[in-house]
Amino acid sequence: MKNIVVLASGNGSNLQAIIDAVESGTLEANIAAVISDRKDSGALERANRHGIPAIVMLRSQSNRDTYFNLLHDRLRKINPDLIVLAGFMKIMPAWLVEKFPMRIINLHPSLLPCFGGPGFYGHRVHEKVIESGAKITGCTVHFVTPDVDSGPIVFQKAMEVHDDDDAASLAERLSPLEHSLIVDAVNFILSGEFEVVGNRVIRKTL
After folding, report:
1. DSSP label at 57?
2. Which pairs count as long-range contacts for 109-112, CB under 8 Å and 24+ apart, including other chains?
């Protein structure tokens, strides 16, 4: 069975979707560890409740290089088949991403390439969607590359933006789509039945 590591900063609802899929047998994988940069992260609480190794790795702006070197060492020691960024609020440096080519995926709360890149995360994404007047939004799972939110797209799901939506309601309605999308993407990537063509991830053909 293949191992995954999940990195999360927030309450861990997307992590919970992965945990539920593993425990139900929908997702054939082992969650080797959950790593968070916040000691009060809900993701760590969820990991502890399910007997998954929960690792706290705190950092300040002054020790960025040290932090990512330590994270690299930790990931190398675990040696997961896939690293899943599920609400991890840190941008990985290019050198670290390049150590795990096509082994890191990220869940982003918009239909990339729209509303992505540096500064677009969490509720900020939804606020910008509302401000833009867009009628459709969604979520994307993509491979992580040195260019933020620009890696090959694995899967996307779309939904309508309602006239009375605000950032909070948009995030709430998008959440179930994110949960199903991340599980589907992890399953697909772990199957190995894919290839990257340009900036797209497609299913291999026989």
Report:
1. -
2. 109/139, 109/171, 109/174, 109/178, 110/137, 110/138, 110/139, 110/140, 111/136, 111/137, 111/138, 111/139, 111/140, 111/156, 111/158, 112/140, 112/142, 112/149, 112/150, 112/153, 112/156
DSSP state of 102: T
Distance between first and last Cα of the chain? 24
Q: Supply the residues annotated as catalytic.
A: 108
Domain architecture of the chain: domains with CATH: 3-203 (3.40.50.170)
Write the pLDDT tens digit of every residue in 167-198. 999 999 999 999 999 999 999 999 999 999 98
pTM over cut 0.85: yes
For the chain, list the strands marked E by DSSP: 3-7, 30-36, 54-56, 82-85, 104-108, 136-143, 153-160, 194-197, 200-203
